Amino acid sequence: MRKDPAMLAISGLHSHYGRSHIIQGVDITAGPREVIGIFGRNGVGKTTLLKTIAGWVRPSEGAITLDGETLTGLTPDRICHAGVGFVPEDRRIFPGLTVEENLSLGLLQVKGRSSRDEKRTIEGIYDRFHRLGERRHQLGTTLSGGEQQMLAMARVMVGKPRLVLIDEPSEGLAPMIVAEIFAIVRELRDQGAIILLVEQNVHEALSVADRFHVIERGQVVFSGEAESQPDREQLLRLIAV
Ligand SMILES: Nc1ncnc2c1ncn2[C@@H]1O[C@H](COP(=O)(O)OP(=O)(O)OP(=O)(O)O)[C@@H](O)[C@H]1O
Q1: End-to-end CA distance of the chain
Q2: For ligand 1, atom 3, which residue shows the shortest CA distance?
Q3: What three-state secondary structure class fits 98?
Q4: How do residues 79-136 score in pLDDT, each as one tens digit?
Q5: Which of 5, 12, 24, 89 has the lowest CB atom count within 10 Å?
Q6: Is residue 6 over pLDDT 90?
């Protein structure tokens, strides 16, 4: 039994798009500072799984709790306030808003914040991400793909989430930027968050993951340890096209 109460528990989760039954009974548990890789071929439901946890897709059955608090059926807003950060595949940089305004929106989920804390937190982000600092007054959507990914992750980071859902962070990015993005994943983990990471770049994802699950047709068909060679081999067999 885990002694630390900070824990994600997903059990018997199902979700649909209309009549299409996409997530078909997923169980996942994770503790703080655990990075869980979610792998699978295209269209098996990885993105839908993250969206269901984030409340973007309503679960039709099952339970999701974080530190014992029930998230199932809550709106995306309330789930966000409960400490769940979501970095979606398309990054969702708000059009018409500057880098700084995008970061300020990330802070809206922090309870009891003051404008002084807010300023300090954003300055902390600029110290960590110089490029965002240099571009603070630029529209977020004018940043490069890598910078937008950085902004999307920084926007989640300012909210000090307990659980972070990250969908395909390396998609379309050059290897050097990918390394930077994965360094941010490690930082989020080191700050105590649980991370669920959907990623096509299996090699990079396994370098940060502790454990992983393979999804097929909305179900977990294999679970393994990132450090186990036999588990890695089985993973590669399962996701080979
Ligand atoms: N908004 C939607 N409405 C209806 N069906 C959808 C919607 N979004 C996705 N689907 C379908 O749900 C299934 C699972 O899609 P999902 O995007 O979750 O898979 P994925 O494993 O993340 O795939 P990929 O790696 O290609 O992103 C697919 O068959 C997809 O066509």
Answers
A1: 38
A2: 17
A3: strand
A4: 999 999 999 998 899 889 999 999 998 887 666 666 777 788 899 999 999 999 999 9
A5: 5
A6: no
Hey, what amino acid is at 226? A
Let me know how long the chain is: 241
Please name each of the domains of the chain with its CATH number. 8-239 (3.40.50.300)
Pinpoint the alpha helices (H) of 15-65: 46-54
Q: What is the ipTM of this complex?
A: 0.96
Both tokens of 8, joined, read 């994600």
| Cα–Cα distance, 202 to 236 (Å, whole number) | 9
User: What residues flank ligand 1, with Cβ below 6 Å?
Assistant: 17, 20, 22, 40, 42-48
Q: Can you read off the two tokens belonging to residue 202?
A: 């299996």
Pairing between β-strand 69-70 and β-strand 59-66 as defined by DSSP bridges? antiparallel
- At 117, phi and psi to the nearest 5? -60, -40
Q: How many A from CA of 49 to the centre of ligand 1?
A: 10
